[in-house]
Design a protein that fits this description.
Helices cover 12% and strands 33% of the residues. The chain is mainly beta.
């Protein structure tokens, strides 16, 4: 496979990956181009997935995408192996196997900027532009020339050599100013998300009244238990999919009479993947009997099947005497889940205890 070439857009993105895009959109593009992105790694904190970024890495191309864990939107792009990826800016290119990414080359391509900063602990010199930074390792024999002062531009060592770039960061251009931005180490945390486009329904707040209804903060729709499929179409539009509820065969064999007829008749789901919601209808009455709200946590069997649902549960009526029932059940994909039930609400928990 030849070296991949992607357009470098300071403060906006790298190739098809745009700052602020949801992780599901990134995976959709990756799935559509399997020959280009044939090796993909997904990294996350298994015990506390909201503590660290969700990282999608492309080891064969030397870069990865950092998604903010709560919103699951792209906040930072890092190129960590510059020789594996060619970056195109305007009519010129930098990086890759055949184009040396030197300090002088970067300065010539992107023009003058504020003096960079030097990290004495890591021996890294970082040069900042709006929405973009370049990191250059400084050889030990030349480290003294960078200490205690702002480095002169263009940076050249006494022997006439120039450092070679080791890392590129692309982040929202609202960060920094006067030579400050996102570089290495703890400064990676400075990268923030760009605002959502006007009218976007991504991460729309959904307010839950237990046993009563869902209400959508942006669109103003309200779904109550007992509504018909026609009512749901009117409020949310056409579902992304319709799926029959899978029934445990042992339940069918053990059922009798009216219970058996109810079991076999077949409840069904309306799937709204782009809202992170499933709606279960009773197979006999064709009325809503259950809502399933997906958190889209990495490691779950349904990860990336649904956009994360940004729901808020009003549980004030049940503060004083919560009645919880615990049980173990196996999902349709064979993933063992712990189910916690409280009144008319159930939570499926991963084995590590994360909802």
């Amino acid at each position: 496979m030849g070296t991949l070439t992607l357009d470098l857009r300071p403060g906006a993105g790298l190739g098809p990956f745009l700052l602020g895009m949801p992780v599901c959109d990134a995976f959709a593009y990756i799935d559509q181009h399997p020959d280009t992105f044939d090796a993909v790694q997904v990294k996350y904190h298994d015990e506390e997935p909201l503590l660290c970024d969700l990282v999608v890495s492309f080891p064969n191309h030397g870069f990865h995408l950092r998604f903010e864990p709560r919103s699951q939107r792209l906040r930072l792009i890092e190129v960590f192996e510059v020789q594996l990826l060619q970056m195109r800016y305007a009519t010129s290119s930098i990086g890759g196997a055949n184009i040396a990414a030197t300090f002088v080359a970067v300065y010539a391509l992107f023009g003058p900027t504020f003096p960079g900063t030097y990290d004495m602990e890591r021996c890294i010199y970082t040069l900042f532009y709006p929405g973009l930074s370049f990191a250059f390792p400084i050889p030990p024999q030349h480290a003294v020339s960078c200490q205690g002062r702002e480095a002169e531009l263009p940076l050249e060592f006494p022997d006439g050599t120039t450092p070679v770039m080791s890392r590129v960061c692309v982040y929202d251009s609202s960060i920094g100013g006067c030579g400050v931005g996102v570089g290495v180490g703890s400064s990676l945390k400075k990268a923030v998300l760009p605002p959502l486009p006007a009218g976007s329904l991504y991460l729309e707040e959904i307010h839950v009244k237990l046993g009563i209804e869902l209400s959508f903060a942006t669109g103003g729709q309200t779904l109550t238990f007992g509504l018909s499929p026609q009512d749901v179409w009117t409020e949310l539009g056409r579902p992304c999919g319709i799926q029959k509820k899978q029934v445990d065969p042992m339940v069918i064999h053990s059922a009798s009479g009216s219970k058996q007829r109810t079991t076999i008749c077949g409840d069904y789901f309306y799937n709204y993947f782009t809202r992170g919601i499933d709606i279960l209808f009773d197979g006999q009455t064709n009325r809503i009997k259950k809502f399933v709200l997906h958190t889209n946590f990495p490691g779950h069997t349904d990860f990336n099947s649904y956009i994360k649902c940004n729901f808020i549960i009003d549980c004030r009526p049940f503060i004083y005497a919560p009645k919880l029932e615990f049980g173990i059940e196996e999902s349709r994909c064979g993933f063992e889940l712990t189910s916690i039930s409280s009144q008319n609400t159930a939570f499926d928990l991963r084995p590590n205890g994360i909802k």
